Amino acid sequence: MGYKENYQAWLNEPTLDATLKKELQTMDDATQQEAFTAPLSFGTAGMRGIIGAGIGRMNIYTVRQATEGLARFMDTLPAAQKQQGVAVSFDSRYMSQQFATEAAAVLGVHGIPSFVFDSLRPTPELSFAVRHLKTYAGIMITASHNPKQYNGYKIYGPDGGQMPPAESDKITEYVRSVTDLLGIQVMDVHTLREKDLMHIIGEGVDEAYYRAVGTVTINADLVKTVGKDMSLIYSPLNGTGRIPAQMVLRNAGFENFELVLPQSTADPEFPTTPFPNPEFPQTFDLAIEMGKKSHADVLIATDPDADRLGTAVWTGSSYQLLTGNQIASLLLHYILEARKQAGTLPANGAVVKSIVSTELATAIAKDYGVEMINVETGFKFIGDQIKQYEETGSHEFLFGFEESYGYLIKPFVRDKDAIQSTVLLAEVAAYYKSQGKTLWDGIQGLYDRYGHYAEKTVGLDFPGLEGPKEMAALMTKFREESPADFAGVKVVSTEDYKLQRKTNADGTSTAIDMPVSDVLKYLLADGTWIAIRPSGTEPKVKFYVGTVADSKDAADKKLADFETALTNFKNS
C-alpha cells in the first residue's frame, strides 16, 4: 500500500490508541508521507526513530511488531530455550516504560516469560541481567543519546551481547513478515502476572551488578588514600545513571563527589540540553560551573541509558573535554600499567577496538606486549570476540572500546558500560592526582611517549525520504572513483568491508575475513587512515580521520587538510 492507504487504515482503525488517533487527525500530507511510506528500519542493532503515529515511527504498534518478530523466532527454538524468557529494561524517555510493558504483553501471548525491571535501568545492567538470569534474550527500550523526540528498541542475545548476525537476520525476517501491525495480539498485565508470564525484577539484580562492578577497581589502596578525597562531579544527563553511579562510586571508596542536580532527575525532556550526548560540550556547561566553584578534579557525564561516558578535566586554567579516543587511551594505559605493577598482566592479553578508533591504543598495547584486535563498528563485534576467547581460551580480554565514547572493562557485561567506566576513570584520575597531575597531564604524557595521535569524525546528514538513496549514492561514488590520494598523500591500500577485499595501490588484493559491512577504509602513506560508513542508527554518513604527527599543531593541520580533501572529493 502507498502512504495514503496506510495512513487511512490507521485512521479508520476503531481500536487505535486515542493519543495516536488525535495525532493522525492533525497530520499534514508531508508528515503523512514521512510517517507512512516506509516501515521503521529494523537491523542488527534493533530500531530507533521519532516517537509518533505511523509505520515509520516509534509507537506501541511498531514495538509490538518488533516483539512479535522476536517471539515468532523464539517459537522455533527448543522449548527449554524458549522458556528461559526475555529480560526487559527501559530508560527515562517518553513512553519507555509503556513500550517495555507492550513487549511483555506480546511475549506472553506466545507463552514466553518476561523479566521486566520495576523502574528505569541502564543498558549495561540489562546486558548483565540477561547473563545473570540466564534468559535467552533481552530487550532494551532506549534511544541512547538521541534528542528527546526519539526512542528505540534493542535486542540482546543469550550471552548479553547484541543479538548475533545469524539470529538477528532471522528475527528481522520475522519482523518484516508481521504486516498487520494493528492486529497483533497482546495479553493484559493482570493475566500475564496470573499466568506467571511476567516477572518484576529489581534490587536482586542491582545488588549482583554492583558486586560485579566492585571488581573493576584495580588498586583499592590508591582509592582509599587518594580517591576518597578527590573532588568529582557527576551528571547522568537526566537519564538512568544517577543511582547506579552513586552506588558504585561509594562502594569503591570515592566519597567526595557531587551531582549536577538539574541533570539528576530522570526527565524525558532533557531540559538542560537538546542533545543529551556526553561528547557535546554544552552537556558539560552546568558541571563546569560547579567545577569552577569547587575546584573539582574531574567532571563525568553519562548518556541517558548510561552506556556512553564523557569527561571534562582541569588543564590548569580551564576545563577541557576529552575525546572518546583520549578517554579510552587513558583507561587502557592505566589498566596495563596497574596490572603490570601488580604482576597480573597476562601473557595472552588482548584489547579489542573498532576499526575507526584511535591507533594510539594500538601503540600502547604493543608497548605492554598485548595484542590489539580490530573489529567492525558496533559493540556487538567486541562482544563476539569476548565470546570467542571464552570458548577457545586463546586470549584474556583486558579492555574494549569504540571511539564513540563506549568502553568495557570487565566482560560480565557485553555492551558499552558507562557505570564500570565511571569507577575506573575516577581511579585513573586518582592515579594521576597521586603524582600531582591531572587527567589532562596524563593524556599529554601519552602523546609525549607514543606520538601525537589525533582523530576527527565528521557526519553528513541525509534527512527525509531520499536520505537513504543519497547515502548509498555517496558510498557508490567513493567505490567507483577509487581516490588515489587525499590532500596529496598517496593511498597505499583500500579496505572494502562490503566487498570483503583489501586492494593495494599496485593492484594486488587480499580477502578480508570479517562480517560484511558497508565501510570503506583508506590507509595512507604517512600513517593516516580515513574511513567512511553510513550510520546504523541515524540518517548520516560518517567520515573518520586518524593521523599522527610530532606535535599537536602538525596533527591538527593534517586533520584539517584531509577533511578539506574529503569534502572536495564528495562535491566533485
UniProtKB/TrEMBL annotation:
Kindly give the Pfam families that the UniProt entry links to this protein.
PGM_PMM_I, PGM_PMM_II, PGM_PMM_III, PGM_PMM_IV
Every Alpha-D-phosphohexomutase C-terminal domain range: 492-555
| Xref: InterPro entries | A-D-PHexomutase_a/b/a-I (IPR005844), A-D-PHexomutase_a/b/a-I/II/III (IPR016055), A-D-PHexomutase_a/b/a-II (IPR005845), A-D-PHexomutase_a/b/a-III (IPR005846), A-D-PHexomutase_C (IPR005843), A-D-PHexomutase_C_sf (IPR036900), A-D-PHexomutase_CS (IPR016066), Alpha-D-phosphohexomutase_SF (IPR005841)
Where is the Alpha-D-phosphohexomutase alpha/beta/alpha domain positioned along the sequence? 41-177, 223-312, 324-450
Q: Which UniProt keywords apply?
A: Carbohydrate metabolism, Glucose metabolism, Isomerase, Magnesium, Metal-binding, Phosphoprotein
Say which enzyme class the record assigns. Answer: isomerase
The EC code for this enzyme is: 5.4.2.2
Name any cofactors this protein relies on.
Mg(2+)
Q: Which GO terms describe its molecular function?
A: magnesium ion binding; phosphoglucomutase activity; phosphopentomutase activity
One of its GO biological process terms is:
glucose metabolic process
Q: Which chemical reaction does it catalyze?
A: alpha-D-glucose 1-phosphate = alpha-D-glucose 6-phosphate
Q: In which pathway does it act?
A: Glycolipid metabolism; diglucosyl-diacylglycerol biosynthesis; Lipid metabolism
Which branch of life, at top level? Bacteria
The family this protein is said to belong to = Belongs to the phosphohexose mutase family.
Q: PANTHER family of this UniProt entry?
A: PHOSPHOGLUCOMUTASE 2B-RELATED, PHOSPHOMANNOMUTASE 45A
Designated name of the protein:
Phosphoglucomutase
Q: Which organism is it from?
A: Lacticaseibacillus camelliae DSM 22697 = JCM 13995
